Amino acid sequence: MKHLLSTLDLDAATATGLLDTAAELKATLLGREVRKLPTLRGRTVVTMFYESSTRTRVSFEVAGKWMSADVINVSAGGSSVGKGESLRDTALTLSAAGADCVILRHPASGAPQRLAEWLEGTGTGVVNAGDGMHEHPTQALLDAATLRERLGELAGRRIGIVGDVLHSRVARSNVHLLRTLGADVVLVAPPTLLPAGVEHWGVTVSHELDAELPTSDAVMMLRVQAERMHGAFFPSAREYSIAYGLNEARLRLLPEHAVVLHPGPMLRGMEIAPAVADSSRAAITQQVSNGVHVRMAVLYHLLATGGGDE
C-alpha cells in the first residue's frame, strides 16, 4: 500500500488486513504501562491540517508516537501557507525535508489525490485525513473495527447511516467500506440531505427513521454540518431532532445487540440525546480508542511493510 486516499481503493482482503493488524496492535499494547513499539523508529510522519480537528489529528499523532516515529504537526496558520505558499510547494518542501508520510486534511475534495500525484517518485506516502465532502477513509476503518468488536463479522449485517449524508465524507467512506465488507447499508435522511445520484450507491434509501431501527444491527448518527450549508435544508433544529434524532424512545426500537456510533463532534440534543450518547449501547469512546490502533495499522502498512513495493 503506497497511499490511503479512498475506501474505494480497498478491496475486502486489504481492508480486512488493515483491521486485523489494528486488532493485533491493540492486543499487543493491552496492559502495557509504556505503550511504545519500535516499529517506525527513524521514520518521519507529518500531519498537515487545513481544517480544524481534534480526534483525527490527535489519534494520528498518538499512533505515530506509539510506534516510535517522529511526528511533526503543520497547520496552515503557522506555516508558509499563511504567506501564500501553494499546497504543492509545501508538500514538496516537506518531502525534501525527509517526510516519509504526509497526512492531509483539506477543505477541497480531491486534495490528497493531487498531493499523491505531486509526490510521485519521492517515496513519500499520503493519507487522506478528510477532504471536503469527499472521503475520510481512516474514519470508516475505525468504525468498521468498532463494529467488528461489537458484532463480529460484518457480512450480512444491516447498518443504518442517519442524518446529513449530503455533506458527510464519513458517510461516503463508510458506504464504500461497509459494502466491500459485505454489510447492507441503509441511508436515512430527509430528501434535502441526500446527494444526487445516491440511488446508484448500492444502498437502501429511507426517509423514516422509526421504520428502519427494528431491523438495524447498528446506527451511525451523523453531525448536521451547518458550516457547509448555504440555505435551508430543514425547517428548524427542533423539527430535525423530532424526525431524525436518536432519543431514548428510539433507542428502545433497536434490537438488544444493536450498536450506536457517532464520528463526532456530537450535537447533543439535536442528532443524538445525551442519555443515548452516554449509554452502554453507544460505542463512541470506543471509536476514538480504535482510531489510534487503526491509524497505527495504516502507518504500519504504509511505512513498515515495503509501502509502494507491495
Automatic annotation (TrEMBL):
<dbReference type="GO" id="GO:0044205">
    <property type="term" value="P:'de novo' UMP biosynthetic process"/>
</dbReference>
<feature type="binding site">
    <location>
        <position position="56"/>
    </location>
    <ligand>
        <name>carbamoyl phosphate</name>
    </ligand>
</feature>
<keyword id="KW-0665">Pyrimidine biosynthesis</keyword>
<feature type="binding site">
    <location>
        <position position="83"/>
    </location>
    <ligand>
        <name>L-aspartate</name>
    </ligand>
</feature>
<dbReference type="GO" id="GO:0006207">
    <property type="term" value="P:'de novo' pyrimidine nucleobase biosynthetic process"/>
</dbReference>
<comment type="function">
    <text>Catalyzes the condensation of carbamoyl phosphate and aspartate to form carbamoyl aspartate and inorganic phosphate, the committed step in the de novo pyrimidine nucleotide biosynthesis pathway.</text>
</comment>
<feature type="binding site">
    <location>
        <position position="264"/>
    </location>
    <ligand>
        <name>carbamoyl phosphate</name>
    </ligand>
</feature>
<dbReference type="InterPro" id="IPR036901">
    <property type="entry name" value="Asp/Orn_carbamoylTrfase_sf"/>
</dbReference>
<dbReference type="GO" id="GO:0016597">
    <property type="term" value="F:amino acid binding"/>
</dbReference>
<dbReference type="InterPro" id="IPR006131">
    <property type="entry name" value="Asp_carbamoyltransf_Asp/Orn-bd"/>
</dbReference>
<dbReference type="Pfam" id="PF00185">
    <property type="entry name" value="OTCace"/>
</dbReference>
<dbReference type="InterPro" id="IPR006132">
    <property type="entry name" value="Asp/Orn_carbamoyltranf_P-bd"/>
</dbReference>
<comment type="pathway">
    <text>Pyrimidine metabolism; UMP biosynthesis via de novo pathway; (S)-dihydroorotate from bicarbonate: step 2/3.</text>
</comment>
<feature type="binding site">
    <location>
        <position position="169"/>
    </location>
    <ligand>
        <name>L-aspartate</name>
    </ligand>
</feature>
<dbReference type="InterPro" id="IPR002082">
    <property type="entry name" value="Asp_carbamoyltransf"/>
</dbReference>
<feature type="binding site">
    <location>
        <position position="223"/>
    </location>
    <ligand>
        <name>L-aspartate</name>
    </ligand>
</feature>
<dbReference type="InterPro" id="IPR006130">
    <property type="entry name" value="Asp/Orn_carbamoylTrfase"/>
</dbReference>
<comment type="subunit">
    <text>Heterododecamer (2C3:3R2) of six catalytic PyrB chains organized as two trimers (C3), and six regulatory PyrI chains organized as three dimers (R2).</text>
</comment>
<keyword id="KW-0808">Transferase</keyword>
<dbReference type="GO" id="GO:0004070">
    <property type="term" value="F:aspartate carbamoyltransferase activity"/>
</dbReference>
<comment type="similarity">
    <text>Belongs to the aspartate/ornithine carbamoyltransferase superfamily. ATCase family.</text>
</comment>
<dbReference type="GO" id="GO:0005829">
    <property type="term" value="C:cytosol"/>
</dbReference>
<protein>
    <recommendedName>
        <fullName>Aspartate carbamoyltransferase</fullName>
        <ecNumber>2.1.3.2</ecNumber>
    </recommendedName>
</protein>
<feature type="binding site">
    <location>
        <position position="139"/>
    </location>
    <ligand>
        <name>carbamoyl phosphate</name>
    </ligand>
</feature>
<dbReference type="Pfam" id="PF02729">
    <property type="entry name" value="OTCace_N"/>
</dbReference>
<feature type="binding site">
    <location>
        <position position="105"/>
    </location>
    <ligand>
        <name>carbamoyl phosphate</name>
    </ligand>
</feature>
<dbReference type="GO" id="GO:0006520">
    <property type="term" value="P:amino acid metabolic process"/>
</dbReference>
<feature type="domain" description="Aspartate/ornithine carbamoyltransferase Asp/Orn-binding">
    <location>
        <begin position="156"/>
        <end position="302"/>
    </location>
</feature>
<feature type="binding site">
    <location>
        <position position="55"/>
    </location>
    <ligand>
        <name>carbamoyl phosphate</name>
    </ligand>
</feature>
<feature type="binding site">
    <location>
        <position position="265"/>
    </location>
    <ligand>
        <name>carbamoyl phosphate</name>
    </ligand>
</feature>
<feature type="domain" description="Aspartate/ornithine carbamoyltransferase carbamoyl-P binding">
    <location>
        <begin position="2"/>
        <end position="149"/>
    </location>
</feature>
<feature type="binding site">
    <location>
        <position position="136"/>
    </location>
    <ligand>
        <name>carbamoyl phosphate</name>
    </ligand>
</feature>
